[in-house]
Write a structure and sequence with these properties.
The protein is of the alpha/beta class and about 240 residues long. It has eight helices and ten strands. The chain has a single domain (about 10-235), classed as Rossmann fold, CATH 3.40.50.
Length: about 240
């Protein structure tokens, strides 16, 4: 979406934004067929050289005549790209009429996981959201992810509960929000035979802590390894209002 204007933002400097994991982009009121918008399909963001990301525009967006459609941000695992999350979600999202924003991390994995604190990835996701908000009539519904992306989705989702109503985490390793804002509903699934991020020291620790902090958590374990079974995608997306 080269050339798309930024969405509305509160006045928060980039240093503060990165340090706390806060996203400042917000949907633009009345956006309809804005500059940078494209028709149904999967399109590059056009915001980064080398590592960029994708946006899935569902066919339902054209039929909705400007009515906002739900947007799911989806974050890949270590060493991956946004294309992997589009591959996972495209069929379900298209059927449900969901937009999917799948950015690439700036490095091999997401900034806070790589040990650099919140900064470049928060800024890139914020800029990607601003571009999508400016180009399409969308309403942010969830932030999601798999593996390292699930850990990052949990971290950013809890820090931005005023933007995302749901956090969908498939096989997360941890949650490390820079701050906690709002009370998003959380979905977590994890394979009992996961050898990459073992369930005993990951989700079976994360979920009780989230519940103790008052979050509404839907938790599903399944027989399997470090994967995202289709039924866990469906179960997660079923939680989003108006997308069943």
């Amino acid at each position: 979406m080269p050339g798309a204007a930024g969405g509305s933002r509160s006045f928060v400097d980039r240093t503060s934004r990165g340090a706390r994991g806060r996203l400042t982009a917000r949907p633009s009121a009345g956006t309809s067929s804005a500059a940078g918008a494209r028709g149904p399909g999967v399109h590059p963001l056009g915001l980064g050289a080398g590592r960029d990301g994708l946006v899935l525009v569902p066919a339902a967006a054209a039929a909705a005549a400007g009515e906002p459609r739900p947007l799911v941000v989806s974050l890949h695992g270590a060493g991956g790209t946004g294309a992997q999350m589009i591959d996972l979600l495209e069929a379900s999202a298209s059927r449900r009429g969901l937009f999917v924003l799948a950015p690439d991390s700036r490095g091999r994995t997401w900034d806070v996981i790589a040990g650099g604190g919140y900064a470049p990835d928060v800024e890139f996701i914020d800029d990607a959201l601003a571009a999508v908000f400016a180009a399409y009539p969308v309403s942010p519904a969830a932030i999601s992810g798999f593996s390292d992306g699930a850990s990052y989705a949990l971290s950013l989702g809890l820090a931005n509960g005023d933007l995302f109503g749901h956090v969908l985490a498939w096989s997360p390793g941890f949650s490390a929000p820079g701050t906690q804002v709002g009370s998003p509903r959380v979905f977590v699934s994890h394979g009992t035979a996961d050898r990459v991020l073992p369930i005993e020291r990951c989700s079976r620790r994360i979920v009780p802590l989230l519940r103790a902090e008052g979050y509404d958590v839907v938790y599903r374990e399944f027989d399997g390894g470090h994967v995202v079974p289709p039924e866990q995608i469906e179960a997660a997306l079923d939680l989003l209002p108006g997308t069943g």
